[in-house]
Write a structure and sequence with these properties.
It is an enzyme of class 2 (transferase). It is built from 7 helices and 6 strands, in the order βαβααββααβαβα. The protein is of the alpha/beta class. Strands 3-2-1-4-5-6 form a 6-stranded parallel β-sheet, sandwiched between helices. The structure holds flavin mononucleotide (FMN).
Length: 236
């Protein structure tokens, strides 16, 4: 994984312990395809969701190999659905351990473009909303807000308590984009990966990063079924 150089200005990706690790893999792949550098923070709790959802561990001591295996995996469980060597240069990823509060992203003076938390747990949402900074992921998110940089929070939980809703309002008021991990069906999804890529694509839209992860609405009903009928309707 890469070392920080003078002009390196990565996107920070925080992976917290909510279900939805394929969303994180899709976002990281797309950032790398877009030629972006990535700084990655994988929370301690997310090691459980990664293990549960991929069948493999994510270990700090083997972060590069574990990341490559994770990025190669399709959302349907196919181990080599993606060719990690084709446009997904993982040497552009710098991994930081979640307990390292002296890491670069702990400081506003460390150059980053912004941060995406994908997926975001309710615990993470609470921690960032309250400014707890209990680990590097939460600290980096607080730094992103105080520096007025883009912060996208892709919450994955349902249903939501009033407490979480209030935390989400606090994040919105602090300048974050609250982006529920709720796939849409109007883009003509046929496979699990399409639904995952829709959420990842909307997160990248919010960050202003170009991608081709999903088919955009073109103003004609029928895209969702693959049977355009020529009628037009409001954007869903
Ligand atoms: C398999 C598994 C799935 C989980 N899914 C969710 C989820 O979808 N949303 C959520 O808010 N928490 C979920 N949790 C609970 C979080 O992991 C837990 O609240 C943890 O403290 C989050 O810590 P973090 O935000 O530091 O990663 C899940 C836990 C496990 C083990």
């Amino acid at each position: 994984m890469s070392e920080t150089s003078g002009d390196r200005r990565p996107w920070l990706v925080g992976v917290s312990g909510a279900s939805g690790t394929p969303y994180a893999a899709s976002v990281i792949r797309a950032l790398l395809h877009a030629g972006e550098d990535v700084d990655l923070v994988v929370s301690r709790a997310s090691r459980l969701t990664i293990l549960d959802e991929t069948g493999h561990p994510f270990r700090d001591a083997h972060a590069d190999a574990d990341l490559r295996r994770w990025l190669a995996r399709g959302a349907d469980g196919t181990p080599d659905a993606f060719d990690v060597d084709a446009g997904t240069d993982t040497s552009r990823v710098r991994h930081w351990t979640p307990g390292d509060l002296a890491a670069g992203p702990s400081s506003g003076s460390y150059p980053v473009k912004g941060m995406l938390i994908v997926p975001a747990s309710t615990a993470c949402v609470a921690g960032v909303a309250l400014g707890l900074s209990k680990d590097l992921l939460q600290r980096a998110a607080s730094v992103t807000l105080k520096e007025r940089r883009p912060l996208v929070v892709a919450l994955r939980e349902t249903p939501l308590t009033g407490q979480t809703l209030r935390h989400l309002v606090a994040l919105d008021e602090a300048g974050a984009v609250v982006l529920p991990a709720s796939p849409a069906f109007y883009a003509g999804a046929r496979h699990i990966q399409d639904l995952v890529d829709f959420v990842a694509g909307r997160a990248l839209d919010a960050a202003g990063v170009p991608h081709k992860l999903y088919h955009r609405w073109e103003g004609e009903l029928g895209q969702g079924s693959g049977q355009g009928n020529g009628a037009t309707g409001p954007m869903p």
